[in-house]
Write a structure and sequence with these properties.
This protein is an alpha/beta fold. About 40% of the residues lie in helices and about 15% in strands. It has helices spanning about 5-15, 20-35, 40-45, 50-55, 65-85, 105-110, 145-155, 175-185, 225-230, 255-260, 270-280, and strands spanning about 90-95, 110-115, 115-120, 125-130, 160-165, 195, 205-215, 240, 250. The strands form two sheets. A six-stranded mixed beta sheet has the order 1-4-5-7-8-9, with helices on both faces. Strands 3-2-6 form a three-stranded antiparallel beta sheet, with no helix packed on it. Helix 9 (about 225-230) links the parallel strand 7 and strand 8 (about 240). The chain binds a DNA duplex through helix 5.
DNA sequence: CAATATCCATCGTGGGCAGG
DNA sequence: CCTGCCCACGATGGATATTG
């Protein structure tokens, strides 16, 4: 039917979590305030530079286990929401990784086989950009199976971006750095390390990027020479944060669209958002407040 | 000695899956 | 279909190690 239905399903999965329910009322207030009630395309686009401020509205100050655990989830949800907001009406859709949402062959492509153990960079966001004219299956019973078939058929024309979200930016930046290396590496035929499974590998996609999006939660200033920065600066998809671009350190999340997902757009990004607003018509389905 | 990098313990959360 | 169990994931900040 349309990619907007895939987007609606992806957003429903996020909106129905308890973490989202706890955060959204405060976020919503901030977001509406900063975008003239989600009617100003330029201001919607620039939300990317303000995600950190918005995110901090929900910090409780208490350091309970619940808060610690929930922060990562909350950041991921907020980033996914913003990506889908800006991607509304385009051929790109963002989602958390799950078997219900991500086409099977794309999960296969990102899965590593390490000896007899299969793993991937699960529980992060991924952005799929479908080619123009993609035969998106109708919603309803069996839609996922039909989508799997259609994506498998168009595999070489699909673009995939994995977006590693982390609320803080410290030594754990090793994780995106290493996964990026893994996805870019070639392994000798004799080894027991294999990239992809069931015949699908990210190398066969039209494009594949691995990017990092952090808040960050630390209050200290970041320098271009610090270790976490150096670890993520050269990811295939670049590194981003929820505040304005700082040269040599990180780009604003707003830049991720042109940097990694430009082919999803038929026009410049702000014009695309404008169209999504004007047409309304469910383009913000599941994304709007 | 100062600055930077790394290590560490901790447990709520939600997806996956088995069993009713 | 629904319920409940299992378990990987992720942030924090002080302690410890390294660098210069």
């Amino acid at each position: 039917m349309s990619i907007e239905e895939h987007r609606a399903k992806a957003m429903k999965a996020i909106v129905s979590t308890t973490t989202w329910a706890a955060c959204w009322p405060l976020w919503k207030k901030e977001i509406l305030l900063r975008t003239d009630g989600l009617t100003n395309a330029a201001r919607i686009y620039h939300l990317g530079s303000q995600l950190r401020e918005i995110f901090f509205k929900t910090t409780t100050g208490a350091r309970t286990q619940s808060a610690v655990s929930g922060a990562g989830m909350a950041w991921e949800c907020l980033v996914c929401w913003y990506l889908n907001l800006v991607l509304s009406g385009t051929r790109g859709v963002a989602m958390r990784q799950s078997r219900q949402l991500v086409p099977t062959c794309l999960l296969d492509a990102t899965t590593m086989t390490y000896g007899s153990y299969q793993t991937n960079t699960e529980s992060d966001l991924c952005v799929i950009v479908y080619p123009a004219g993609f035969p998106y299956p109708g919603a309803g019973r069996g839609y996922k199976a039909a989508l799997d078939v259609a994506v498998a058929k168009a595999f070489g024309d699909i673009e995939l971006g994995i977006v590693q979200c982390k609320a803080n930016w410290n030594d754990n930046a090793q994780i995106p750095m290493l996964w990026d290396m893994v996805y870019r590496a070639s392994f000798d035929k004799g080894t027991n390390i294999k990239l992809g499974r069931n015949g699908y590998s990210v190398k066969h996609l039209k494009a594949f990027t691995y990017s990092f999006v952090t808040t960050p939660t630390q209050k200290s200033a970041f320098k271009s020479t610090s270790m976490p920065v150096k670890r993520t600066n050269n990811l295939s998809g670049g590194n981003f944060w929820g505040q304005p671009t700082s040269s040599g350190v990180a780009l604003s999340v707003s830049e991720i669209f042109v940097r990694n997902f430009g082919s999803a757009f038929d026009s410049d990004v702000v014009t695309s958002i404008e169209k999504a607003i004007v047409v309304k018509n469910g383009l913000f389905a599941g994304v709007g407040p």
